[in-house]
Amino acid sequence: MSHPFSAAAAPDLPPHPSAASSPPPPRAGEPALSVRGLVRVFGRPGTPEAKVAVDRVDLDVPRGSFFGLVGRNGAGKTTMLSMATGLLRPTAGSVRVTGVDVWAEPRRAKQLMGVLPDGVHLFDRLTGRQLVTYSGLLRGMDRETVARRTEDLLHAMDLSGDAGTQVQDYSAGMTKKIALAGALIHAPSLLVLDEPFESVDPVSAANIRAILHAFVAAGGTVVVSSHVMDLVQRMCDHVAVLDRGRVLAAGTVDEVRAGASLEDRFVELVGGRAGAGEGLSWLRPE
Amino acid sequence: MAAPGVNRAGTVPPLAPAPAVHGAGSAVLVGRLVGLKARILLNTVTRSTWVLVGTILGAAYFLFVLAFAVLGLVLLGGQDLSLVRTVLVLAGGGTTLAWWLLPVLASRADATLDPARLALFPLGVGQVQWGQAVGALVGVPGALTTVALIASVSSWRSSVPAVVAAVFCLPLALALVVSGSRLVTALAVGLGRRRRATEVLSLVALLGLVLMGPLLAGAMNGLEGTWDRLPEWAAALAWTPVGAVWAVPADVAAGRWPEAAARTALTVASVAVLVLCWRVAQARALTSATTERRAGPRADAGAGLFDRIPERPWAAVAARCLLYWVRDPRYSGALVVVPAIAAVVWFSSAQDGMDFLFYALGPMFAALLAYQISGDVSFDNTAVSLHVLTGVRGLHDRLGRVLALLVVAVPLSAIGLLLPFVLQGRWELLPGLAGATVLALLGGAGLASVMSARYTYPVAAPGQSPFKTPQGFTVLNVLVQFVALGLIVLLVLPAAVLVLIQVFTGDPSWGWTALGTGVVLGPLVCWGGIVLGGRWYDRRAPELLQEVAQYR
Q1: What pLDDT digit, counting tens, does each position of A220-261 carry?
Q2: Which residue stretches of B193-243 are H helix?
Q3: What is the pLDDT of residues B488-524, one digit of tens each?
Q4: Cβ atoms of residues B437 and B18 within 8 Å
Q5: How far is Cα A250 from Cα A273, in angstroms, rounded to an integer?
Q6: Can you tell me where the transmembrane regions are (chain B) (predicted)?
Q7: B159-189 pLDDT, tens digit each
C-alpha cells in the first residue's frame, strides 16, 4: 500500500474541473496562492489589548509546488491560512487564488480550494461517510460523483471499516483523516492544510503524503503548515518561515535552509533558543 | 484548549520544590487541591469584563435568595418546635436530594477536580476524596448550603439542647450531602464513557424535573388539606437516610433520646456507606480514567438520509439538521421538553378559569420549536466553518435549517393544536388557532433565520451535556434571547387577537380571518426571514464564525 491512490481514486483527484462544480479555468501564469500586505489585528486597533497576529505578509505559492509554512506555536500560521481561505476577514491586504480574489469573489475562490482547518469542530454526529458526502453535496456536486469519490477517499484514508461510525467516536488521527477526505471531495486545484499530520499515525501519515505527492505530480498545489521541520524538509519543495506574524524567509527549501538542516536554519532565523537544560540542573533521576 | 483556567493562573507554581511532593502530608495536598479549585473559579470569573458583570449579577441573585432563606430560618426560630421540625426535615431532605441528583443532570457539572484529570498525579484515593469534599464547599452551592445550614441552627433557639444538637449535626449533614453528591459524580464519570447512556439519563432526569412541578401541584390539588399532612410526610422522611439528620435536634429538645440516637446512627451509617462506595467508585475512575470505550464499527453502506434527498445544497443542510434533531441531545432535549410542556399546561389549565391556556398548546409548541433554531449557528459552533469553506449560499443555509425544523415541528404542532379539541371540544375555535399556529411556526422560523445569522449566544458546545452552563454567558446574550422570544410572541399577536375577538363575540368569521392571516402572513414572514437572513449570512459569515469560536 505504498501508493494507495494509484489505482482506485487517481482518476478523480487531478484538478481538472468537474462538470458539476465547474470552477473557472485557472488563469495561466498566476501563482496558486498570492498574498499581498496581509494584516490581522485582534482587538480594537490602537488599544493596549490590540494584538497584531499577522503583520504585512507578502507570499507567493507557485503553481504545482508543495509548500510548507513553518513557525512556532502562535506565530500566526493558522491566522494567515484562515484569512487565505475565507474563514477570517483580514484587517488589510488581499489574497488571490490563481488570480481570483478570495474576499471579492469568495464563491469562485472557494471552488478552487480544498481546506483542512485546524482546531475546529466537525459535524461529528454524522458518520464518517455522511460527513464526506455532506461536504460534497454542500458544494452542489451530483450525488453519483459524490458517492463514488466518497468511497474512494474512505478507502484511501483506510477508514472504510469505520465509515458507519459517528465521527465523534473517532480518534484524533481518524478525525483528521476524515476532515481531509472532506476537503478533497471536489478535486480542488489548491489544497490548504493546517497541521494535517498532527496525531496521525505513521502509516496513515505515509498514505496521506503519498496522496498529496500524487496530487502535486498531477499539477495540483499543496500548502501545509507544520512545526515539524524534518517533515517539511523531506516533503515540501518550497517553504516559508513565519514568526510573530511576519515572513522571515521564503523560497525553495534548498534556498531557505542554505546548506544547513531546515531545523537549524529555522532556530537560527527565529532565535530564542535556551541553552541545553540551562536552569534545570535539578532535573535528573534521584 | 485543555483547562483554560489553569494556564491563565496568575501565580505559576514554581517547578523547584520537587522533594516537597514526597514529604507533603495529606493535609497539604488537600489544601492545594482546594486552592486549585478556588483559583480556577476565580480565573473563570475574571476572564472578561462581561463575564464578571454576569457573575456579579448572578451572585447578587444568589445572595438575595440566600438572604431570604436565612431570614426565613431565623424567623422560624420564633415558631413552635414541631413546626420547626416539619419545615427543616422537608427542606433539609429536599436539599440533600438536590445535592445527590444534581451531578446526574449536569453530568460533569463540577469537573475541576474530576478524577480523570487528576489520574496522572501521585495522589492517593483518600487524598483526592478529601480534596474533593472540601473543594465542594468552596464552590457556589457549597458556600450557600453551608451558610443556610449555619442559619438553620438559629431556628432551634427556643431549646438550648436542640441548638447544641444542631451544631453537632451540622458537619454530619454536610458530610451527608457532599459524600452522596461525590459518589454520584464518581459513578457518572464511569457512565460518561458510555455516551448514549449519559445522554438518555440526563434527558430522563430533565423530564422528571420538568414534570415534578405539575405532579406535585396535582397531588396538592387532589388532596385537600395537604398542609395538615406535611407533618406526617416529615415524620416518614425523618426515618430515611435523607431526612434523619434534620430531625435529631427536635428529638433532643423533646427528650426522646432513643430516637435521637437511632437517627444519628442511621445518618452516620449512611455517610459511612456513601464514603465507602464513593471510595470504590473513585478508585475505579482513577485507574480507568483514560480507557475510552469506543463504539464498534458499523459497516452499513450508504450515507443514510443523504442518499434520499435532492442534489441541492439546501437539501443537504436540511438532512444534516434533521439528523442533529434526532442524534444531538441539545436538539432532542427540545423535543423531550415539548410533551413536558403539554403536561405542565394541562395541569395548570385544570384549575378554574385557566382552561383557555390549554388551547394555546399548538402555537406554544410551534413558537418554542421555531425558537430553537435561533441558536442554530451557536449550536454548530466552529463546525459551521464547513459551510463557510464550501461557499454555501446564505439562502441555502437558512432554507435548509428551516426545512429541517418544519419536518420536525409540523407534526408536533399539529398534535399540540388538535389535542385540546379532541379532549375538550369547542371545535369552532380550530380555524383561528390553526392560523395562530401557522403564524407562530412559519413566522417564528423566519425570525429565527434572521436572528441566528446576526446574533449568536453561548450554548453548550458540541458533545457537551445540554445542561452544561456555557462559559461567557453575559447579560447581553440573555437579552438577545428574550428579544427573540418576545418578537415571536409579537408576531403571533395578530392571529391571537382575532381568536380572542371570536371568543368574546362568538362570531366564527373572526376565526376564519385569523386562519387567513396566518396562512398569508406566515409564509411571507418565513420567506422574508430566509432571504434577509441569507443576505446577512453571506455578508458576515466569517464574523459569525469568529463569534461562535469563542463559545467553548
Answers
A1: 999 999 888 888 999 999 999 999 999 999 999 999 988 888
A2: 195-222, 226-237
A3: 889 999 999 999 999 889 888 999 999 999 999 999 9
A4: no
A5: 21
A6: 50-76, 83-102, 130-153, 160-180, 200-218, 230-248, 331-350, 356-373, 402-423, 429-453, 474-504, 510-532
A7: 888 888 888 888 889 899 888 888 887 776 6
Q: Which residue carries 505530480 as its cell?
A: A217
Segments forming the whole domain that contains residue B109: 25-287
Are residues B351 and B272 part of one domain? no
Q: Which residue in chain A is spatially nearest to B552 when comparing CA positions? A: A121
Same domain, B358 and B426: yes
CA-based nearest distance B384→chain A, Å:
8
pTM of the complete model beyond 0.90: no
Q: How far is CA A46 from CA A17, A20, A75, B546, in A?
A: 45, 47, 21, 20
In this structure, are B263 and B317 located in the same domain? no
- Delimit the domains of chain A by residue range: 33-267
Question: For chain B, give me the number of helices (H) and strands (E)?
Answer: 24, 0
Q: What is the pLDDT of residues A197-206, one digit of tens each?
A: 888 888 888 8
Same domain, B340 and B431: yes
Q: Are residues B311 and B246 in the same domain?
A: no
Q: What is the CATH number that goes with domain A33-267?
A: 3.40.50.300
Q: B311 and B274, same structural domain?
A: no
* pLDDT tier, A5 (very low <50, low <70, confident <90, very high otherwise): very low
| B172 and B320 inside one domain | no
Strands A66-71 and A221-226: parallel
Q: Which residues pair with A246 in a beta bridge?
A: A243
Does the beta-carbon distance from B297 to A138 stay under 8 Å?
A: no
**Sequence-ordered alpha helix ranges (H) in B328-393:** 329-349, 356-359, 361-372, 376-380, 385-390
Q: Which of A240, A205, A236, A200 is nearest to A71 (CA)?
A: A240
Chain A residue closest to B326 (CA)? A125
Chain A interface disruption, residue of B327, B386, B392, most A CBs within 10 A: B386
Q: Which residues of B497-508 are buried (b: 16+ CB within 10 A; e: fewer)?
A: ebbebbbeeeee
To the nearest whole Å, the CA of A88 is away from the closest chain B CA by 5
The ipTM, to two decimals, is 0.86
